[in-house]
Design brief:
Blueprint: E1 14-21, E2 32-41, E3 44-52, H1 61-67, H2 71-75, H3 80-91, E4 96-98, H4 101-115, E5 123-125, H5 126-133, H6 142-148, H7 160-182, H8 189-197, H9 203-212
Parallel strand pairs: 1-4, 4-5
Antiparallel strand pairs: 1-2, 2-3
The protein binds one DNA strand of 23 nucleotides through residues 18-28, 30, 33, 62-63, 66-67, 98-107, 125, 127-128, 131, 139-142, 158, 197, 199-200.
Length: 214
Amino acid sequence: MSSPQSRPARADTLVVLDFETTGLSPNQGDRAIEIGAVLIEQGVITASYQQLMNPGFSIGNFIEQFTGISNGMLACAPNCAQVMAEFADFIGDHNLVAHNASFDRRFLDAELARLRRNYSGEFCCSMLLARRLYPQAANHKLASLVSFKGLAHDGVFHRALADAKMTAELWLAMLRDLEELHGLKAPSFQLLQQISTSTKAALPRLLRAQAVGR
DNA sequence: TGCCAGGCCCTCTTTAGGGCCTT
């Protein structure tokens, strides 16, 4: 439940996060094995967090190959409870962004529920926003969008901090495009949530209304 | 018993089906 706020949250001050996991569904017993995140404050990345975590069982070969995270690497990592308690402190009460946020939100909720911890920020999905802003992109996978926007990256994919940094750069690029192409300077986080979940048909009217209202 | 993700969007839809995206 959102608490009353005196003014809308900024869209350039939030935490961008990414989980690597043992599979696709915490409801099927999957667990987080790595969390990576960056804090963006007023459009600048000011802090980062990355930690492997031991899920308590061996991960499958597919995940080892997919992420480059091995069972050997996880054997000496702290357990999920230790890491997620620390990470809950990192995110604080910031709003949150992730690429395909419904996935990361499920794992964040599941891991924090085990600790009886909670968080007050709201999620916005960079993938849904990119679908609205860049319908001409070949697809809306994170790596494809990074290439589509010509964003700098270090060639590492499917590791939590690397993906969180790329998502953050994509998010900042979308903020720039909203200002340059649509006249939306310093949009609120709530407006970006609204844009990301609007229908394709409703988007032009929404953007016009925001531009006119300024 | 048999199956096994789930949320979101799009479309010749809406009493539905299929594709995308995340690991």
